[in-house]
Give the backbone structure.
Amino acid sequence: MRNGSDSSGRAKAPSGTPAAAAEAALDWVQEGMTLGLGTGRAASAFVEALGARVADGLRVTGVATSEATAALARRLDIPLVGLEDVERLDVTFDGADEVDPELDLIKGYGAAMVREKIVAASSARLVILVGPEKLVARLGERGRLPIEVVPMAIPLARRELAKLGLDAAVRLDERGEPVVTDNGNLVLDAKLVPPLDARALECAIVAVPGVLGTGFFLGLADAVVIGDEAGGVEIRRRTG
């Protein structure tokens, strides 16, 4: 039996933390929904779990937040549309790199944060899937904030970020080449030291010409599904 399939050949979610959260997140899915499909390890586990349900007859439509997610969804026969084809998404399922007690997030270690934020903002609900290692007491504890920047604007952005007290470097891949987003832009990773005023910092950063967006996802998540390696799941919901 190949990895990623059951004995019938259908795709299934991988074992471990993402699988537990992915299976629990499926409780938000109903027949006929249009779903936002996030990017990254946890989001891919959800897409795999969703693909198994689709193979069993569930009818849903997805909007992918990255080319990698779109390729995975197509392989699993999950129908895809663009945002221009739908008025509103029912739920978006995605991962996160940091989650604080108020369910504010930092995302973007997978370099898809701008598309992820567009899809999340187009959705009635945003459900985040993480393992317990992504929980933080204060945003910024893992030390970096991804920022997507038009290539021409990199020098300007780095100077303006320095004025905000942020040291930022262009993200490089394993070959030492700049990481290029699906939008054709570059990613600056800015060093963070909490405590910080995330909302004020977000406003200041996105005001810099050439900055398309940051990894701050503030006030967007409706629920966070936390899955552990033993298969346990905790669900935290936004209040107020």
User: Anything to note?
Assistant: The chain has two domains: 17-134+219-230, 144-214. The CA atoms of residues 157 and 208 lie 6 Å apart. The two ends are 47 Å apart (CA to CA).
